[in-house]
Task: structure prediction
Amino acid sequence: MADPSFLSSEQAHALFDTLTSHITLTEIENLKYSKTIATFGPPLQSSNVKEASTPLLRILLQSFIIDLPGFRNVTPHFWTDTIYHLATALDEANLSESYDKGSVGIRRTLSTASASIVESVARGRLGGYPKQALETNTDYDRSDPDHLAKGWDDFLQRIIYGDLLDKMFIKAAETDKLSDHEPVVQAAHQYALTM
Result:
């Protein structure tokens, strides 16, 4: 008989998903309060903020956004003045909270949509993604679901552990044709469309 004081693998996974979902939505919803923005911490404020109001969002911002091409070389002034003031201006705009004249309001729509994306990224960041050998020269039959699934896994491996994201930005600056990208990007795109 299993020890009831331990969670099974499935239970631990479900708990992780539930907690990640809850904290993500809570932090995004709390962005409507100016106090949350004022205590966000780096990079929106100096590093002397004692306790960040949104630790998960701050981790994701520092782990992903700040390192993206275009954000890598911005000055601290961009974050502390421009982005900080944009965030406080959105707070002061007093966007509708939930229902506005019988329909879902703007703030609720943005909050829910962004939460689903941020939640997926947070699960990956906090839970990790098992590292496998990177395959760089693979052709994928995009009519074969198994090839597409393999392409998706290879895509994630190369985005997380390789330099595929940088290569994609460079290629996107050169061309707007998906067919000019690496086969793994094309397979991942096809997989995402058919999921």
